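In this section we turn from sequence analysis to structure. A common task in structural bioinformatics is to predict how a protein folds when a small molecule is present, because the ligand can shape the pocket around it. The inputs are simple: the amino acid sequence and a SMILES string for the ligand, here magnesium ion. Study the lines below before reading on.
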Amino acid sequence: MAKIVTFHSYRRGTGRTSILASLSVILARQGKRVGIVDTNIQSPSAHILFKLQDKDIGYTLDNFLWGESELEQTIYDVSKIANSASGRIFLIPSSDNMARIMRVLKEGIDVTLLTSAFSKFDELRDLDFIFLDSSSGITEDILLTMAVADILMVVMRLDEQDYQGVSMILDLAKRLELPRSMVIVNDIHGGYALKEVEKQIGVTFKCEVGGAIPHSDEFLRLASEDIFVLRFPEHPITGTLEKIAAKI
Ligand SMILES: Nc1ncnc2c1ncn2[C@@H]1O[C@H](COP(=O)(O)OP(=O)(O)OP(=O)(O)O)[C@@H](O)[C@H]1O
Ligand SMILES: [Mg+2]
């Protein structure tokens, strides 16, 4: 059975998708089979990081959810990017067509069907991990992607709004009796000692801390054009991401 890791954050733009993409590449390079589902239906972006062009995308997750395609037809092999002999990365993208996004927002999604998609994905591709890129905030479909998680990865920045939001998410995780939750603090600006931040967050939230990642202008300039660990293999942030991957 694949381990389901849900990447969540309270606010938008915390670096969730970038971190998910880097961790997928690290694990694929270790020979793992990683399946990614872009459940961030409102603002999908995983396909951009994995360089899946619009012209290469036929069916997407929403086609499956509306009975317009089989799940098999929504799975794209994006392993090439990781350049690994044995590891694999498969992506189920979401549509970035505005009309389709509006339809999901208006009609909602079939929760049972979405859950069935995760186990089917595992069955079809024999995965070690399923990474879910959830949307931010707390809504019904997010509760679902949280509830199925073996590990909930909460990505936050050092911001008062995030503090309150993350505390709410971790509280929910406790109520859902999730086996494991981990916080990743990202985009930490100069002046903070990373080790100290890690310690403080662990104490404040009484939770496991995956790692503390500093703000980096290189990361900012990447602007989703590439996956960080591929572009900057020797960067200290890559080292931190490798340590986080080892904890999954
Ligand atoms: N540590 C960092 N330092 C500087 N820039 C970063 C850092 N981490 C992520 N970024 C940048 O922040 C931007 C947003 O990242 P990303 O798209 O991964 O966030 P997200 O949480 O998935 O956003 P959304 O809520 O829209 O899905 C990207 O341009 C990314 O390169
Ligand atoms: Mg994202």
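The chain has one domain: 3-247. As an exercise, try to locate the residues that line the magnesium ion site and compare them with your own expectations.
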